[in-house]
Amino acid sequence: MSDTALSYPVDARNRVRRHHERGAYDHDAVHAVLDAGMLCHVAYVFDGQPYCTPTLHWREGEMLYWHGSSASRMLRGQRAGVPVCVTVSHLDGIVLARRGLNHSANYRAAMCFGTARIVDDPAEKAQALAAVIDRFLPGRSGRVKPNTAQEAKATTVIGMRIDQASAKVRAAGVGDEPEDLALPIWAGVIPVRTVIGAVETSPHVPAGVARPPELAHYPEGETLDKALRETQRIYEGG
Amino acid sequence: MSDTALSYPVDARNRVRRHHERGAYDHDAVHAVLDAGMLCHVAYVFDGQPYCTPTLHWREGEMLYWHGSSASRMLRGQRAGVPVCVTVSHLDGIVLARRGLNHSANYRAAMCFGTARIVDDPAEKAQALAAVIDRFLPGRSGRVKPNTAQEAKATTVIGMRIDQASAKVRAAGVGDEPEDLALPIWAGVIPVRTVIGAVETSPHVPAGVARPPELAHYPEGETLDKALRETQRIYEGG
């Protein structure tokens, strides 16, 4: 709760226009959406053409990192960085109302604005390559075969300070008009959630190799949301 | 399978670079990813700044439609349309390997390129406002209170012909190096999937109003993926 008082600056770029009552600009609200997911979408512009690339992200304070994507080739020529918008969204439900235009969805989304740069400082990059494992799988980077220098070089990590952001959340029942409430039409919510399945051990793992402790954070049937928020908490405390 | 022979044209804009062996350009592969989701991310440029907006999408042949988003205000001044990239992604699993840089994710993603325009032809718009309900909830638009002309006017639908697209899919086990296979390190996949929860009836629905037939497509515990592919099939056949 330490960040509740901190807010991102708001202007035309990040102000929530449609359903502005669903918008929030405090760090906690934005971080909660980011940390509950591992898949983000990065928007960038190349020769006037917008691209929307899905990739894996993680957060460290106000820094957002993601795994090299098609944006990498463009960034190589731009040491000063390029403007991007990184969005993380979760679909939580389908909302069925009495009239068509009151149909909606429950969701959580965070849009983050900043300048993306390739992480090329060797120390920062080594830390990022450990973080991309440990943030999701606590302690695992120390339990796997170390990366070679060549492997590290072949991997691209991109980083961005979150300059501005907004969160937008709908988590509610049906928003029917008062005059529609008595209509003999069914209304309600179909909830959806992303859950963890039964872990599949690789057939090549030698007999006798135990499941590592990091798997305990991903119990079958649990929501991915909860597992990711918990592993982020461990990562921040570590 | 009728579209297997049809492919989107490939050039620098949509060619899959990293892990090109995971890329596909045929209509069926792209449609399969689009139709298994209802949440897309739209990248567009406004005053040189990229934006990545999450919204609800649906497909009708080679036309992709989505619900009015923050891009709407920009599109109002651009009758010729603006270039966008619409991406739909699904996270299917977390892949734990023997060395850090072989860690991966299973996923399906489709990136679609085209020119977005506001749907303002009254007949096309009326059809789109019915489609956004019926594509997900077969037949429901005819069972709810009709939209007023004013409501329809206040809602924005955006449409785009898919000019180019690519699909990228990883659906595999651990990609360990041959020399790592005997290492005493655990490796495997944590599967994740998005599932449907128990439907919640609005407390305002009068007693005696039955659950409508469209809910049968969303049984508790089923994957959203399967429900959306099935409702798309019905929508196309209707």
TrEMBL record, chains A, B:
Pfam families linked to this entry: Pyridox_ox_2
Name the domain of life this protein comes from: Bacteria
The protein here is known as Nitroimidazol reductase NimA, pyridoxamine 5'-phosphate oxidase superfamily
PANTHER family documented for this protein:
5-NITROIMIDAZOLE ANTIBIOTICS RESISTANCE PROTEIN, NIMA-FAMILY-RELATED PROTEIN-RELATED, FLAVIN-NUCLEOTIDE-BINDING PROTEIN
Supply the source organism for this entry: Albimonas donghaensis
Q: Which InterPro entries match?
A: Pyridox_Oxase-rel, Split_barrel_FMN-bd
